[in-house]
Amino acid sequence: MRYVSTRGGAEPRDFEGVLLAGLAEDGGLFVPEAWPELSAAEWRALRGLDYPALAARLIARFTGGSFPESELLPLCRAAYGGFAHPAVVPLVQLGPHLFVEELFHGPTLAFKDLALQLVGRLFEASLARRGGEIAIVGATSGDTGSAAIAACAGRAGIRIAILHPDGRTSEVQRRQMTTVLAPNVTNIAIDGSFDDCQDLVKAMFADTPFRETMHLAAVNSINWARIAAQIPYYAAAALALGAPDREVAFAVPTGNFGNVLAAWAARRMGLPIARLIVGSNRNDILARFLVANDMSRQPVVPSLSPSMDIQVSSNFERLLFELLDRDPAATAATMREFRAGGRMPVPEAAWRRATALFAGHAVDDEATLAEIRATEAATGYLADPHTAVGMAAARALSLQGIQTVVAATAHPAKFPDAIERAVGRHPPLPSHLADLYERQERYIRLPADLAQVEAAVRSASLRNAA
């Protein structure tokens, strides 16, 4: 399995090379040179596998010789062995054709754990056989940071620095990052939005001397390994509901497009997915694109679902590459225009291809609270604000008679203030986080200035090395 850049200016790599590189040198994102496909018989043969075995079998289609299935399986068992539910990603039925797939039973209570608990182990395994060290830099709108830190804290050869938008995550999200005091962990609160944090990370990767000197690696979903590790939970839900002999639909609350892109990749591999529903909050760039071909950047507005407070959805570039018939020059030109003018000129024919599968629906804060309240009253199920966005989108856009699965991306206890506004009480934190509000925090505050952020990352790396 080889990988190419969406912009065509980077040498192809194998999976391990993509894992360690993260972002391509030309600013593009790595994608498989050719998509693996499974026959209906091969999908049926996956029924009955437990989640680690299913994950290893599917991810091996993308790792090739870098990590064969025999090596992936023990890594997957270690990654998911500590999850709080024996099924790892259980399905809960809420209605005749409506389910939620709970993706929040990992150590940091969010779907990011499903990828990053494995990716941290892949980094460690790769470094053990190659030697050397890496400095991971990442941007988070709330959940990626804590999941990445939980996956990498204390691991040999790894230093990690996470940028989060100061004051724009929930307190639980922030504390899950800033109370990890392992010496190889650095947290930086940026005066700005998630998009500012993401731009700084991309700029660090674009700074070739800094990138090479620091041996940068990425944990954001710009890293293809993240997407590959998210595909199995879509397969798990679809197989449980009758695939490949029965179609399903997924409703995914999304800001950076990585989670729903993994569902698209599962479909590209042969899963019969009839529709992918994108739930947006008031930062509705993806919904506007899918409704009216309006991919125009607007100011980020804080919401009750902060992990989706994004106006530049990085992973959309991977879908754009496919919509433009895998033309790297056209993809690069489109991304340049978007960066320069704030609007992405997606050709009408490409947009229509997208809307044949994807549908978008935006939900504001009041509608989010109403969905949390109504769902609990009707079913007893308490959803976090992000999951509620997905539920509202599913109710608005799901296909009649098609089993629809909402990606439940976070535990409600991560957003206690929003839950209290909706149902009048705070959900308790699980026992392993019960003392979170009493733990010591450690982080630094910086402006959205590349030189200052690079200096902080360099200083932290030198301090950790000492």
Structure keywords:
5-stranded parallel beta sheet, globular, 466 residues, 6-stranded mixed beta sheet, alpha/beta, 45% helix
Describe it for me?
- This protein has 19 helices and 13 strands.
- By secondary structure, the chain is α/β, with parallel strands linked by helices.
- It has a domain at 91-109 and 225-423: 3-Layer(aba) Sandwich (Rossmann fold), CATH 3.40.50.
- The strands form three sheets. The chain has a six-stranded mixed beta sheet with strand order 3-4-12-9-10-11. A five-stranded parallel beta sheet has the order 8-5-6-7-13, sandwiched between helices.
- Helix 11 links the parallel strand 9 and strand 10.
- Helix 4 (69-80) crosses helix 5 (112-130) and helix 5 (112-130) runs parallel beside helix 6.
- The radius of gyration is 20 Å and the shape is globular.
- The chain starts with a strand and ends with a helix.
What topology does this entry show?
Blueprint: E1 3-5, H1 15-21, E2 30-32, H2 40-44, H3 51-63, H4 69-80, E3 91-95, E4 98-102, H5 112-130, E5 134-139, H6 143-152, E6 158-165, H7 171-178, E7 185-191, H8 194-206, H9 208-214, E8 216-218, H10 224-240, E9 248-253, H11 258-268, E10 273-280, H12 285-292, H13 316-323, H14 328-341, H15 348-355, E11 358-362, H16 365-379, H17 385-397, E12 403-408, H18 416-423, E13 444-447, H19 450-465
Parallel strand pairs: 4-12, 5-6, 5-8, 6-7, 7-13, 9-10, 9-12, 10-11
Antiparallel strand pairs: 1-2, 3-4
Helix pairs in contact: 3-4, 3-10, 4-5, 5-6, 5-10, 6-7, 10-11, 16-17, 16-18
